[in-house]
Amino acid sequence: MSQMPQQAAVSKCPSCEEPLEPGDRFCGACGYDLSVVPARPEDSPTLAIHGVVSAPDDVDWPVARDSDGHGHPAPVHAAAELPGTDSGGSPLPPPPPAAPPSAPVAPAAPAGAPATGVRFDRPGEPEEYPLQAPDPRLTAEPAPVPGQAPAPEPAAASRQPAPAAPDAAEKVCVACRAGRVDDDGYCENCGHAQPRERDHMEQESGPIAAVSDRGLRHHRNEDAFSVGCTALPDGAPASVAIVCDGVSSATRPDDASLAASRAAGETLLGALPRGTHPQQAMHDAILAASQAVNALADEPATAREQAPHQNAPACTLVGAVVTTGLLVVGWVGDSRVYWVPADRTTPPARLTEDDSWAAQMVAAGLMNEAEAYADERAHAITGWLGADAYELEPHTASFKPDRPGVVVVCTDGLWNYAESAEEMAEAVPLDAAARPLHGARVLVGHALDGGGHDNVTVALLPFPAPSQGAGSA
User: Fold this and answer.
1) Would the CA dihedral through 206, 326, 324, 232 be positive or negative?
2) Helix axes 253-271, 278-297, angle to 10 degrees
3) What b-and-e string marks burial along 317-329, b requiring 16 or more CB atoms within 10 Å of the CB?
4) Which of 393, 395, 405 is CA-nearest to residue 342?
């Protein structure tokens, strides 16, 4: 059965030290429950611990408190957090300083050996205590001894590892030259957006070269080109250049120009060695380019992104074939071919006619050329490659220049800044036939210096085509 707690016979409250009356069960000052106070033992013998006699009973030890006087437990302190005194009340001597972090831990001393100066107050939590700076005399490297081998380098694990360099096969950031470029086109190190592959393109194939640049105003390059060299059945060399300009108002113009330039270039380089006349080969190449662009409109990805305000992918095309005695050009749209003779005292010429609103106005006699090209509708094209184009009419023409020179094949991103044949001839470097890549770079720079409002693409072909060996590419 249950029993009532027995009252302990004490004269003072263990909590607040107030005097108690006999028979009190609770302290009248703090309300302490006196029934939980254990009874005082009858005998308090003096015990010897490790040969040291405990302090006598007349020492005034502080009374331990297990309550703050209001029923809450007293705060608990670790021994290291309280000032230490000996049994007589005198302060304890300060502990010896902590050992330097670099000092090795001494092995355990045998029994009976004197204690060492190494002390570990709380070995589990060394980071809670500031460590004394190591003595430089202990950490300094010893002087080398003549004839002695140098000390080995510290282990690799003890040195700070260097950041891993990008793999050789990975793209490196053009800004910081250190970070890897992720799949989204941004540097993982500095976050810099990387230029896309088609923002600036250059290619040199034998004696011909082409350069394409995004320009200064457009967010992407919608131009494309294809250049190559081959040989006719009689071994005579032939150079080929195709330049395409995507129609910005169409869907996926960059894909259209790329597909058209590749299809036309491959068709020409395949037909000429078989003996197809260069003008007929150019006509067939334009038809092949048209089919390649039309096929883009049939792709499911294109069909899904079509909307009422969008149309099929579209682009313009212009190309040239140069042999030892014949120059063939072909085009659909408003990209152009210029003839610039090596002798600049002879007149240059423009070899193509634009499929544009301005050209129609001039041909009909309604405007002169200056008035037509000053109109805001001047660059509205009337012919292009694409599934929504009108009846396709490829234009081809053949020429037999009687002197050496260079053929300039370009988009309107260049001829906008050198429209007439005389202006183009003035922009073409004198050594363009001998250094076509340099000449193409100069012409692209001419357009960029003029404002770079459009994508710029130009290919240069020397005439006559220099021999490069049969089948060269």
Assistant:
1) positive
2) 150
3) bbbbbbbeebbbb
4) 405
388 three-state secondary structure: coil
- Give SS3 for 190: coil
Residue whose structure tokens are 């405007």? 367
CB atoms under 10 Å from CB of 144, counted, come to 10
Cα angle at 281 between 278 and 286, to 5 degrees?
Answer: 130
**8 A C-beta contact, residue 287 and residue 281:** no
Report pLDDT digits (tens) over 434-445: 999 999 999 999
* Burial track 441-469 (b if 16+ CB lie within 10 A, e otherwise): bbbbebbbebebbbbbbbbbbbbbbbebe
Distance set, CA 141 to CA 100, 104, 132, 134, 469 (Å): 16, 16, 20, 13, 70
Q: At 473, list the tokens.
A: 């590419």
Sign of the C-alpha dihedral computed for residues 35, 36, 40 and 41 taken in this order: positive
Give the closest residue to 295 by CA, choosing from 384, 224, 385, 387: 387
- Within 8 A by CB and 6+ apart from 411, the residues are 223, 243, 245, 316, 318, 335, 454, 455, 456, 457, 458
The neighbouring-strand residues paired with 321 are 240, 328
CA distances from 368 to 333, 361, 365 (A): 20, 8, 7
Spatial CA neighbour of 462 closest among 177, 274, 207, 247: 207
CB 222 within 8 A of CB 284: no
Contact 225/459 with Cβ under 8 angstroms? yes
Q: What totals of helices (H) and strands (E) does the chain contain, helices first?
A: 9, 14
Mean pLDDT of 380-402: 92
Question: pLDDT tens digits for 53-110?
Answer: 444 444 444 444 444 555 455 554 444 555 555 555 666 666 666 555 555 444 554 4
Q: 3-state class of 389 per DSSP?
A: coil
CA dist 272 and 268 (Å) reads 6
Query: Is this model's pTM higher than 0.70 or not?
Result: no
- Using the Cα atoms of residue 58, residue 62, residue 64 and residue 65 in order, give the sign of their dihedral: positive
Cα 211 from Cα 202, distance rounded (Å): 4
DSSP states of 325-342? S-EEEEEESS-EEEEEES
Residue type, 114: P
